[in-house]
Write a structure and sequence with these properties.
With 425 residues, the protein is an alpha+beta fold. The protein folds into four domains: 39 residues, no CATH class; 107 residues, Sandwich (Immunoglobulin-like), CATH 2.60.40.10; 54 residues, no CATH class; 187 residues, 3-Layer(aba) Sandwich (Rossmann fold), CATH 3.40.50.410. Helices cover 28% and strands 33% of the residues. The chain has nine helices and 22 strands. The protein has a six-stranded mixed sheet with strand order 19-18-15-20-21-22, sandwiched between helices. It has a four-stranded antiparallel sheet with strand order 1-3-7-5, with no helix packed on it. Strands 6-4-9-10 form a four-stranded antiparallel sheet, with no helix packed on it. A hairpin with a 1-residue loop joins strand 18 and strand 19. Helix 1 packs antiparallel against helix 2 and helix 4 runs antiparallel to helix 5. The longest helix has 21 residues.
């Protein structure tokens, strides 16, 4: 528009200077064109716009449907261009994010589009809008306040069971045998009959062997536990190869473990170690599950030199003698700290995704590859064997295998019942 106006004025000046009316007449169409554009430009454009989501929280793999509604509350707009910028991690599946419209006074326009992306918390920036006239000379650039946020939660396969045996339990009924006699359904041992014992607890088979001494059956109490889940977010643990990251297996594993434990009634907390220390206070139930999933949705590996090893793991955040579940591919320097957790009285379960098998799938064939992989597996088996000898329960997890089946095969067998200490048989 500035160029056309300068051109028209230049023609007029030249025509006057040269006293050539023909040159001045060439400027008239340009001035008429500019005048018509100026006359049709909306003076005070006003509109109301809404951006709505089908759901503010979805899982990985779900489509996110966004609905945009624009209402013209001012005078007619001959040309309205709208563009909705997507966060870089989201990609368009269906529909379009840009529209060119004509809106009469009070007119409404609505359209939808679908996007998809990986886990995370995504904020949509305000929409960009250009309002102008048919000639395209005068445009008003505007932004709206239609800010929207969507959270893509990690998707995971539920785990049907996760038997744990911490050294200390909470005094509420639950699924964990407490190593104490009391109300329960599992056999714990036998002891001499005491006045007040119900007749249904008399062990008639054992009593038949000792006619002068009635014997009562003891059952094991089942209680709840404090469980802390530690997810390794260190950069050296988040292996990435050909667009795949080991972290994208570890995060769903942490979600599945937390979900199973919360369904069993335990008090569960979560720590992301490596991106600083991100901590979810222990809690119960569905609200705690949402807190944990939201924290996992935002989990990203970060390089902090202060947290390259586990020496700064704040063990005091976890209740004494509670159950810790550490999800990490491990590095050799982690062994000492894991043993230290065991020495502090924690019961430690290590779920370790196999980084060697993960990397092997993405490495091109090489004459020495087989020998290198064999040596790496031997070194890893030695590390895991030392942890097991130190009282750590280890689950070596090839990520191609379903975690729930692996946990069931490793932890699915309960220890044999023990006789109650002091029973006289």
């Amino acid at each position: 528009m500035v160029f056309l106006l300068a051109l028209a004025l230049g023609m007029i000046v030249v025509g006057l200077a040269a006293q050539r009316p023909q040159i001045i007449s060439l400027a008239i169409p340009l001035l008429v064109y500019i005048g018509l554009a100026l006359n049709n430009t909306p003076e005070n454009p006003r509109w109301h716009i809404r951006r709505e989501l089908n759901d503010s929280q979805v899982q990985v793999g779900d489509q996110i449907t966004l609905t945009l509604t624009l209402i013209n509350e001012g005078e007619a707009v001959k040309e309205l261009w709208i563009h909705d910028s997507l966060p870089p991690e989201l990609h368009l599946i269906e529909g379009e994010t840009t529209r060119l419209l004509f809106l009469p006074p009070g007119g409404t326009h609505t359209w939808e589009y679908q996007v998809k992306g990986g886990r995370g918390v995504y904020a949509f920036t305000p929409l960009q809008m250009w309002a102008g006239e048919t000639f395209g000379l005068f445009r008003q650039v505007m932004t709206t306040d239609a800010q929207t946020e969507v959270t893509v939660m990690p998707a995971y396969t539920p785990i049907r069971s996760l038997p744990i045996r911490p050294a200390r339990t909470i005094g509420f009924a639950g699924p964990i045998p407490s190593r104490q006699s009391g109300t329960g359904v599992d056999f714990f041992g036998v002891r001499p009959y005491q006045p007040g014992d119900p007749l249904r607890r008399i062990n008639w088979r054992a009593t038949a062997r000792y006619m002068d001494l009635p014997i009562s059956t003891e059952f094991e109490q089942e209680r709840l536990a404090d469980v802390g889940i530690i997810l390794d977010m260190r950069r050296q643990s988040a292996l990435a190869l050909r667009g795949r990251s080991l972290l994208e297996y570890m995060v769903p594993a942490a979600a599945a473990v937390a979900d199973r434990l919360l369904q069993d009634g335990h008090r569960v907390g979560l720590m992301l170690y490596g991106q600083g220390i991100d901590w979810v206070t222990p809690g119960y139930g569905k609200i705690q599950r949402e807190r944990i999933l939201l924290t996992l949705a935002k989990a990203r590996p970060t390089q902090y030199f202060a947290f390259e090893n586990l020496n700064y793991l704040p063990t005091r955040l976890f209740p004494a003698r509670s159950q810790l579940i550490f999800i990490s591919p491990l590095v050799s320097e982690d062994e000492e700290m894991i043993f230290l957790l065991r020495a502090h009285g924690y019961t430690v379960l290590l779920i370790s995704p196999d980084p060697i098998a993960f990397e092997q799938d993405g490495i091109p064939p090489h004459p020495y590859l087989e020998d290198a992989v064999r040596l790496a597996h031997l070194e890893r088996r030695l590390l895991l064997s030392q942890l097991e000898q130190g009282g750590i329960t280890v689950i070596n997890w090839p990520v191609q295998q379903e975690l729930g089946e692996l946990i069931h095969s490793v932890l699915g067998h309960s220890p044999p019942p023990r006789l109650l200490r002091g029973a006289r048989l």
